[in-house]
Amino acid sequence: MKQQIMDGVYWVGVIDWALTHFHGHELSTHRGSTYNSYLIVDEKIALIDTVWGPFAEEFLHKVKEVVDPARIDYIVVNHAETDHSGALPALAALAPQAEILVSPKGMDSVPGHYRHAGDLRLRPVKTGDSVSLGQRDLLFVEAPMLHWPDSMFTYLTGSNLLMPNDAFGQHYASAFRFNDEVDQEELYEEALKYYANILTPFSPLVLKKIDEVLALGLPVDMIAPSHGVIWRKDPLQIVTQYQEWARQEPKRKAVILYDTMWEATRKMAEAVGEGLAESGVDHRLFHMSLTDRNDAITAIFEAGAVIVGSPCLNGGILPTITPILEDLRGLKFKNKVGAAFSSYGWSGEGLKRIEDHMKGARIDVVAEGVAAKWQPDGEALERCRELGRTVAKGLPA
């Protein structure tokens, strides 16, 4: 059902309890998600973002509980990705007089997604533009690459409500709508996972945009993202947290990623961990054929070191290891050190392949890699321990 979140502002989104993966299978969502939409009733009526297409009927029912859709004056599309705009064609058909407000880049992305939706009444708005709803105004701030070129924030004056679309959100389904009503550990786990897996490449832009928004001097009583819960209690806490995450200052932690065929690389991974522990470095081992890749990425985001091991297979590495190495390259993590280890039977190219991947991800390889033929003997395991000790020296004290 709809829910009033402040005077004249209604949440008309939907909860997707069953969602297990997002962006196809790119991102795991262990706790489901929400698609948040906000209906503002003033002298004029505005709707901020819609929901994913499969939930259009439920969404429209909630809108109709508040107003006749034909009365809507403005539909704001902060971001054209279909989890936020999928119900737009259905809503636009019921609100033919509504202007659809998009960022300048949205003039390309919105019709690009909905080529068969008929004549959508699009109007571009840029940073600093506003529209009056009567007692309150909508103010727009472009936020390109947070996380698409068309992304923007919408601010409701008078209510001091910031609706930043994908920024400050979480894939987190909950019976409740506000941050002070849910488990705080779960909330921050999901907020961190969201940032680490989606927004990390844009961290310099995150810092710049936050500074720009804060410089506007807009009071913020509530931050209502398009996924997860709404920040009502101390809403700027998540802004402060984003600033910390965007700086990517590493912790004295390490992550060891490995896969194994006949337990050789498992033994090596454990020995590397022993060397780290001897040096007082907390660490986690992830067996990548059994581990959720996004959970491993979240752990790497917080850690200062990532160490990767694989058997050699067909002159390369196991296919379970390659995807996360590609993720590390694409996510552009900063301030990481690392090293590699590998087992092999006759050729042994795997070690160099891993190190090349790490260098491509701009991870500073600070220890000589360890390659062990067949099962590692005592000397090879001691070299793994020394690798762990050496990596530990490259971490902040």
Write the layout of secondary structure elements.
Layout: E1 3-6, E2 9-11, E3 14-16, E4 21-22, E5 27-28, E6 33-35, E7 38-41, E8 45-48, H1 56-66, E9 74-77, H2 82-85, H3 88-94, E10 99-102, H4 106-113, E11 122-124, E12 130-132, E13 137-142, E14 152-156, E15 161-163, H5 184-199, H6 203-215, E16 222-223, H7 237-247, E17 251-258, H8 264-278, E18 282-287, H9 293-302, E19 303-313, E20 316-317, H10 322-331, E21 337-344, H11 350-360, E22 364-365, E23 370-373, H12 378-393
Parallel strand pairs: 8-9, 9-10, 10-11, 15-16, 17-18, 17-19, 19-21, 21-22, 21-23
Antiparallel strand pairs: 1-2, 2-7, 3-6, 4-5, 7-8, 12-13, 13-14, 14-15, 19-20
Helix pairs in contact: 5-9, 6-7, 8-12, 10-11
Number of helices: 12
- Radius of gyration, rounded? 24 Å
Enumerate the spans where pLDDT stays under 50 for 5 or more consecutive residues. none
Share of helix, binned: 25-40%
Annotated CATH topology of the largest domain? Metallo-beta-lactamase, Chain A
Structural class, from secondary structure content? alpha/beta
Number of strand segments: 23
CATH superfamily label of the largest domain = Ribonuclease Z/Hydroxyacylglutathione hydrolase-like
Report the biggest beta sheet as strand number plus sense, adding barrel if it closes. 7 strands, mixed
Q: Please state how the strands of the largest beta sheet are arranged side by side.
A: 1-2-7-8-9-10-11
